[in-house]
Amino acid sequence: MNNKVLLLILVGLAAIFALTKVLSGDDNSSFDPEFIKVDQEAVTKVVLHTKADGQAEAVLTKTDSGWTISKNGKTYQADTDQVNNLLTNLASVKSNFIAAKSADKWPDYELNADQSSHITVYGGNKTLADFYIGKFSVNQQAQQITSFFRVDGKDDVLAVIGMAGMMLGQGSDSYRNKKVLDLDISNIETLNYEGDAVYQVSKSNNQWLLDDGTPLDTAKVQNFLMNLRTMSGESFVDFEENLNSDKLLKKLTISGNNLPDPVVVRCWKDDAAAKPFIIHSSQFPDSYFSSDSTRLFTRIFKPVGEW
């Protein structure tokens, strides 16, 4: 058999194979593991309806000064690092295999609209990505987590091995700025404490003094200030300050000539709450945090006797 005949046979076999694939409806050859393709720089808005939020809407919006997050009719400063992590996770999502190919299988993977987290990504008025995240499957033996996605308008259930589903399905509070204090402690000159006691601690010629003139241990005061330098909360809480003025428990006012304004940290107590202390800083006025007696509360309102 000469080479020309062999070539014709190979071409014919290839044509028969291709025709068989088309007639059988097998479209696995078109499977694209990169089903989310987003240019991070082009993203201007992300709309979240996550299971963690009971599918309530939250909107991340890019502004000239960073990112904001809007929910329940209010807008808050977002944590830019967390938003960037979200966008990085979007870019890294890749499907490992197709778990199902029809919409009647969606409930099995918690991918119906009322079961799943829904994320839509925009660049201006253009939709860059629109997808749903369903359940997670944990393989203990392989120490492997698989999450299931589907793209809006398509039937396929896509399996993604790894943590991407969990990371993208986080609740909206994950993207809020959690800072309570962010201070240059070299500018602090006076601390006024009001609560179970009332006193002032002030700096004079590199010595820290109590308001009655008693010198304090400089190293201990410095350690306390280092503790205040940068501080973040954990759990946001809805709190109406004006409606709860009678619950004000403590107040710490931090002042200095080089501070733009005094920073006032207030603490209210709500005995009905599991974490009864509500902490608020004038540096980040939109955020109220709940605390038990071992975290923010004790770090900020440490009695001067412990300095």
Would you give an account of this structure?
- By secondary structure, the chain is of the alpha+beta class.
- Helix content is 19%, strand content 36%.
- The strands form three sheets. Strands 4-3-2-1-6-7-8-9-5 form a nine-stranded antiparallel beta sheet.
- The protein is elongated.
- The termini are far apart.
- Mean pLDDT is 89; it is low at 5-29.
Mean pLDDT: 89
Q: How far is the first residue's CA from the last residue's CA?
A: 97 Å
The number of helices is 5
Radius of gyration: 28 Å
Q: Which regions have little confidence, pLDDT < 50, spanning 5+ residues?
A: 5-29
Largest sheet: 9 strands, antiparallel
Structural class: alpha+beta
Trace the largest sheet across and list its strands.
4-3-2-1-6-7-8-9-5
Shape: elongated
- What oligomeric state best describes the polypeptide chains here? single chain
Count all strands and give the number: 19
Q: DSSP strand (E) fraction?
A: 35-45%
Helix fraction, binned, reads 10-25%
N-to-C SSE series? Answer: HEEEEHEEEEEHEEEEHEEEEEEH
